[in-house]
Amino acid sequence: MGRDDMRAGDGDRKAVAEQLKTALDEGRLDLHEYDERLQRTYAAKTYGDLDGLLDDLPGTIPVQRAQVQPATSAPSPVAAKGAGPGRQNQHWVGPYAGVVLVCTLIWLVTSIASGELLYFWPVWMLIPLILGFFGQRHGGGRER
Questions:
Q1: What confidence score (pLDDT) does residue 28 get?
Q2: Which among 85, 82, 23, 10 has a CA at the least distance from the CA of 53?
Q3: How distant is the alpha carbon of residue 107 from its chain centre?
Q4: Assessment of whether the complete model's pTM goes beyond 0.85
């Protein structure tokens, strides 16, 4: 199956239409030529039909000469800061401490409003925080 027989997808037609719109905005195409090429773009069924619509416009690379570049992944923010491997999975400890603080403040406000010390229920939320903190300190999250 050759390029002239391979069906073009909606994304391919949309990409060509966006490049044509850019050329119109830059003044490289007049409105009549843009309209004509846009109609041909949306009527295209194969890649062969799309060929030639952008060849005479600067800044576009015909598909026959395009090169695929491998994507490079950016380093994770945790690794960029130099955190050790035991700390990479412990990024939740700080935000969770804020949640425990908010719950403790709610307990304090309700205790003051009721005039007596109520059951200190935020203690149950401290358990995962304490385990996470000690796991972070003593390398409990090391990769194996």
A1: 85
A2: 23
A3: 38
A4: no
